């Protein structure tokens, strides 16, 4: 642990009475905050609590409506000059360029001959320091890397010198695409960085990670900082209470007695599912689960036939890439998969569209005044609910879900768990890929993927977090 | 990752080589200094216009006005530059600046480039009509001499093509600023966040495109010795085709200057090849289209392989 | 801002109205009614190809049909050749034109789908072949359309030019399909995000195919009507409709980024494009000035529309 009473230096960054308004909406209120060198600050809060706004104000991409943001230690005018770096959730790499070239873009001051070699050395050293045995070449194009590798490169660029020295690094859900091993390397690297006098703001929805790295935790709620204390003053339960949700322990899907399952409805590539069954797909991120689901779905549906009543529907987790139609209203987004089943003479049945939309708005609890509002007016969690509704309004007997709870708050999760349980009881089959192990533990049966293939099928008593981890890691441990 | 997607220039080279082999087989006499000169006669202005288009495509835009712009610069070259070099130079520089300003405006007002360049094509075309209402003008002597110089062993057109490819490769694929410009095509937001002034970079990309457009018009006049307001209208489509033939893609900053030059050479060769084939004039245009399709279809073979692996 | 000003089609119509007023005020020589009639006649051709182009552009970035002029010429040439000026063959001619449209549309989409060519390149390369076909079949040939067909194309019903009525009918069909039809929803979903649309069960390829077929059929119909209207097919008859079809789509308020389309705006833009030229002719401007001003006005409208959109 760090010597917390020591810091006599001026803080790296101070926020004094900062507020931020978007129109009439106050995204941030009365924020007072100082972050000193050597601190690792964990930042937690629900979606919409103001975390993103807060870090955007610190890194200078948003301007505070009221109050002051200062950098006393460096006496710099702006965040860039003060050595504030940000790793964003949506990556800021150019996929058409190599690692070294991306570093060149981040390092605006790099000049002169031989920059390519210097940039290559800099990114390699940074990667080596953060993720030993990463195996990524400095000349590789970003587009040839896996998502996890891209995230590693993104983090490495922000931790590289770039002509100065990173003083404060903001990490927004940095482990979301990383498997446990790499995530641990990152957490260790964050600890080392802080021990050497760097500061970190670490945002994560995985409380375990927060407790591992943070020596101070900020809890945000409704645009305010509601708690700001050393990490050891909190318990997990305490944190959750501060964030303001009652349901801390997730209810499991298996609380009721085991349901009667029907006949086998899917059997493809070793994957089997029965009518009414909730089948989980697990394993380390990027080991072929998403591809297996996409193949299953694309094979079962057609890009040419009129879908009518489709045999299968898909719930996207990567909302922006796979789900949301950004120009449309919430209602049009929800009804898309239903249109051809209810159409008459090829025309949309707008009355039933509206009726079904209202019904599902109530059932799934989408928080909006009107379904005619644009889909982008919703928070991330509510957009996800709209995508669930899109899938569930259809009569499709099979629902495929590709990590749909990514970046979704606990409240939404509870709502959706309940819905899935109810729909499964009516005889729907769910195929559910999740990166969160505790989520898949609630399924009836779980397939664990490793290296693009199923390495274990677990059900009943075998279905524990330990067994899933075992099946995910086995080979890697023996070869390590 | 296949060899071909790593080095996007390999496929254009392969298709150019194949087309040349067929040409030499059909008409062995072309395998000579003069034969090659004839085959690639008009390649230089096409290559320069293709580079101009590539610079725009590189930042995820597209230029539907480059043909009209090259026509205009050809008209300026054949009139003002020939009669009063100073005035002509000033006008050409002004046109380059106009291109840069157009890029800045497209960025600042978030306008669709396809429409602005389309609108500008009317402007360029109108100005060209002012200058040369009917075909005419003359090439400045020095320009004519440069374009008809006969270097030993290799014809001028090929020497110039290599020069263009070398310079633009260094500028775009290698230099730091070229990397940043390609970065705009890949992820403009990331470039902006790093602190680069996007508007100036966009202006730079468009200004460079204007420069190469001016060079295309000048070399064209050097070759044809006169100009008219419609002389290069087809360059708009040729240049787009050249960029794609050269392994470039419309979005994502994935362009290759060397490939673009080779793509332009392929297009120039295809036209010459067909006239050698004594194909009925009715079918010459169509055969060009067919060659274009055939060459582009070859990309598919390698794409498929990539796709299967992914 | 009143809600009507937020309609994406309003700018094209305002511009058309203003140009109309100025031209009439300057005294175009044929009066307001005559000018309106001419605008309806000539605007109709631009509107027909524009509505087709709009469907394709709505499919999202990179989707555009550059083969419109070649398809127009080919359809006109083959249709006139089939009719050979013989009375009573009008339907045969129309049939040939429609078949040409279906053929070029299918060929375009086959190139896009099977060879995975970017649509710009695919339709460009294919158009060269259509152009050759037209040259070959048109060789030394100057056939007049059958009398009745020419009369229809240049005639009027209820004081509205027949070609404008055909254009309005086609536009209405597209408008209904887009605003009320399942197909329209699918098209606009695919235009916003093809991957998301496919994962939501939209038959994306089917939608794309029908869009590319429709634009070609519309171009073929426009070519057929234009040849009948002007007394014969000419090899360069479609040339001006390449840039025109794109210009009317954009000026009409359709999003170049895809997923949003707008039929009324196309007509406003088509009128506008015709009226600008009339206005400049009235001024006695030369070809150069006309071209420069057309360009400046196109850009001006795009800027006006985009800044208003950003503030709305």
From TrEMBL, chain A:
Residues 13-247, 251-476 form the ABC transporter domain. InterPro entries: AAA+_ATPase, ABC_carbohydrate_import_ATPase, ABC_transporter-like_ATP-bd, ABC_transporter-like_CS, P-loop_NTPase. SUPFAM superfamilies: P-loop containing nucleoside triphosphate hydrolases. Keywords: ATP-binding, Nucleotide-binding, Repeat, Transport. One of its GO terms (molecular function) is ATP binding. CDD domains: ABC_Carb_Monos_I. It comes from the Bacteria. This is ABC transporter ATP-binding protein.
TrEMBL record, chain B:
The keyword Membrane applies. It is a multi-pass membrane protein. Its main location: membrane. It comes from the Bacteria. Keywords: Cell inner membrane, Cell membrane, Membrane, Transmembrane, Transmembrane helix, Transport. The keyword Transmembrane applies. Coiled coil: none annotated. It is found in: Cell inner membrane. The chain crosses the membrane at residues 7-26, 38-57, 64-81, 87-106, 113-133, 153-172, 203-225, 231-251, 258-277, 283-302. Pfam families: BPD_transp_2. InterPro entries: ABC_transp_permease. Belongs to the binding-protein-dependent transport system permease family. AraH/RbsC subfamily. This is ABC transporter permease.
TrEMBL record, chain C:
It is found in: Cell inner membrane. It is a multi-pass membrane protein. Coiled coil: none annotated. The chain crosses the membrane at residues 35-57, 91-114, 158-178, 209-229, 241-260, 291-307. Keywords: Cell membrane, Membrane, Transmembrane, Transmembrane helix. It comes from the Bacteria. This is Sugar ABC transporter permease.
């Amino acid at each position: 642990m760090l010597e917390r009473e020591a810091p006599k230096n001026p803080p790296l960054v101070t926020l004094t009475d900062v507020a931020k308004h978007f129109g009439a909406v106050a995204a941030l209120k009365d924020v007072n905050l100082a972050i000193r060198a050597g601190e690792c600050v964990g930042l937690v809060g629900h979606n919409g609590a103001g975390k993103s706004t807060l870090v955007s104000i610190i890194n200078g991409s948003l301007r505070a409506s009221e109050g002051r943001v200062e950098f006393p230690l460096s006496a710099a005018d702006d965040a860039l000059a003060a050595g504030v770096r940000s790793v964003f959730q949506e990556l800021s790499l150019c996929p058409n360029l190599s690692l070294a070239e991306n570093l060149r873009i981040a390092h605006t001051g790099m000049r002169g001959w031989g920059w390519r070699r210097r940039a290559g050395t800099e990114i390699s050293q940074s990667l080596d320091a953060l993720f030993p045995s990463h195996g990524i070449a400095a000349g590789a194009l970003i587009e040839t890397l896996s998502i996890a590798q891209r995230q590693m490169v993104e983090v490495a660029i922000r931790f590289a010198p770039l002509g100065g020295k990173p003083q404060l690094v903001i990490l927004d859900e940095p482990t979301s695409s990383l498997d446990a091993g790499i995530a641990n390397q990152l957490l260790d690297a964050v600890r080392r960085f802080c021990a050497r006098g760097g500061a970190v703001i670490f945002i994560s929805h995985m409380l375990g990670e927060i407790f591992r790295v943070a020596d101070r935790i900020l809890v945000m709620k409704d645009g305010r900082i509601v708690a700001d204390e050393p990490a050891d003053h909190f318990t997990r339960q305490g944190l959750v209470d501060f964030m303001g949700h009652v349901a801390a322990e997730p209810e499991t899907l298996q609380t009721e007695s085991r349901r009667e399952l029907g006949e086998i409805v899917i059997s493809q590539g070793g994957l089997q599912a029965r009518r009414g069954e909730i089948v989980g797909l697990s394993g380390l991120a990027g080991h072929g689960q998403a591809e297996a689901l996409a193949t299953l779905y694309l094979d079962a549906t057609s890009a040419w036939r009129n879908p009518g009543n489709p045999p299968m529907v898909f719930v996207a987790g990567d909302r922006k890439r796979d789900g949301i139609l950004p120009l449309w209203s919430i209602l049009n987004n929800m009804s898309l998969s239903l249109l051809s089943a209810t159409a008459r003479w090829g025309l949309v049945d707008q009355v039933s569209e509206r009726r079904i939309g209202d019904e599902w708005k109530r059932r799934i609890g989408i928080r909006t005044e009107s379904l005619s509002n644009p889909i982008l007016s919703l928070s991330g969690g509510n957009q996800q609910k709209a995508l669930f509704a899109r899938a569930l309004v259809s009569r499709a007997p099979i629902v495929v879900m590709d990590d749909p709870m990514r970046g979704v708050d606990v409240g939404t999760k509870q709502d959706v768990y309940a819905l899935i349980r109810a729909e499964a009881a009516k005889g729907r089959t769910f195929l559910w890929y999740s990166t969160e192990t505790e989520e898949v533990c609630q399924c009836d049966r779980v397939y664990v993927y490793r290296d693009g293939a199923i390495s274990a099928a677990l059900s009943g008593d075998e279905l524990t977090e330990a067994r899933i981890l075992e099946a995910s890691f086995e080979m890697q441990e023996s070869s390590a | 990752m296949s060899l071909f997607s790593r080095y996007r220039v390999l496929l254009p080279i392969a298709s150019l080589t194949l087309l040349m082999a067929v040409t030499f087989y059909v008409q062995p006499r072309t395998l000579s200094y003069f034969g090659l000169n004839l085959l690639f006669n008009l390649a230089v202005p096409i290559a320069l216009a293709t580079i101009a288009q590539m610079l725009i495509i590189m930042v995820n835009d597209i230029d539907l006005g480059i043909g009209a712009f090259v026509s205009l610069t050809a008209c300026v070259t054949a009139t003002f530059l020939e009669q009063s070099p100073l005035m002509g130079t000033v006008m050409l520089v002004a046109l380059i600046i106009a291109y840069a300003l157009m890029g800045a405006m497209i960025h600042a007002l978030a306008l669709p480039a396809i429409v602005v360049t389309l609108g500008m094509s009317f402007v360029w075309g109108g100005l060209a009509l002012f200058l040369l209402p009917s075909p005419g003008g003359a090439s400045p002597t020095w320009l004519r001499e440069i374009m008809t110089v006969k270097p030993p062993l290799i014809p001028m057109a090929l020497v110039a093509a290599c020069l263009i490819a070398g310079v633009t490769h260094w500028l775009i694929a290698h230099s730091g600023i070229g990397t940043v410009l390609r970065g705009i095509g890949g992820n403009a937001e990331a470039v902006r966040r790093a602190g680069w002034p996007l508007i100036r970079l966009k202006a730079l990309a468009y200004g460079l495109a204007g420069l190469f457009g001016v060079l295309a018009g000048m070399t064209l006049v050097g070759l044809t010795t006169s100009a008219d307001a419609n002389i290069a209208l087809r360059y708009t489509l040729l240049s787009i085709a050249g960029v794609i033939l050269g392994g470039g893609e419309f979005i994502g900053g994935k362009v290759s200057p060397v490939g673009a030059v080779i793509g332009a050479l392929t297009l120039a060769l295809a036209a010459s090849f067909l006239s050698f084939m004594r194909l009925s004039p009715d079918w010459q245009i169509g055969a060009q289209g067919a060659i274009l399709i055939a060459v582009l279809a070859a990309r598919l073979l390698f794409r498929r392989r990539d796709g299967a692996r992914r | 801002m009143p809600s009507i000003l937020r309609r994406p089609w309003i700018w094209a119509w305002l511009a058309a109205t203003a140009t109309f007023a100025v031209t009439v005020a300057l005294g175009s020589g044929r009066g307001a009614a005559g000018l309106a009639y001419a605008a309806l006649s000539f605007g109709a051709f631009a509107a027909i190809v524009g509505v087709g182009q709009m469907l394709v552009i709505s499919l999202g970035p990179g989707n555009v049909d550059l083969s419109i002029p070649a398809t127009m010429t080919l359809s006109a040439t083959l249709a006139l050749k089939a009719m050979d000026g013989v009375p009573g063959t009008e339907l045969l001619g129309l049939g040939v034109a429609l078949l040409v449209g279906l053929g070029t549309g299918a060929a375009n989409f086959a190139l896009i789908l099977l060879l995975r060519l970017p649509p710009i390149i695919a339709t460009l390369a294919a158009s060269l072949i259509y152009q050759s076909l037209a040259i070959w079949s048109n060789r030394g040939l100057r056939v007049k359309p059958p009398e009745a067909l020419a009369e229809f194309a240049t005639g009027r019903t209820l004081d509205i030019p027949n070609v404008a009525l055909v254009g309005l009918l086609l536009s209405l069909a597209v408008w209904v399909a887009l605003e009320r039809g399942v197909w329209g929803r699918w098209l606009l979903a695919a235009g916003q995000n093809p991957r998301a649309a496919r994962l939501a069960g939209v038959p994306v390829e089917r939608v794309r195919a029908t869009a590319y077929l429709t634009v070609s059929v519309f171009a073929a119909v426009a070519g057929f009507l234009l040849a009948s209207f002007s007394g014969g097919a000419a090899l360069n008859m479609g040339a001006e409709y390449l840039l025109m079809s794109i210009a009317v789509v954009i000026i009409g308020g359709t999003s170049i980024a895809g997923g949003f389309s707008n039929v009324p705006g196309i007509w406003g833009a088509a009128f506008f494009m015709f009226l600008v030229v009339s206005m400049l002719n009235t001024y006695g401007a030369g070809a150069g000035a006309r071209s420069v001003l057309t360009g400046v006005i196109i850009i001006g409208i795009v800027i006006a529309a985009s800044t208003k959109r950003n503030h709305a």
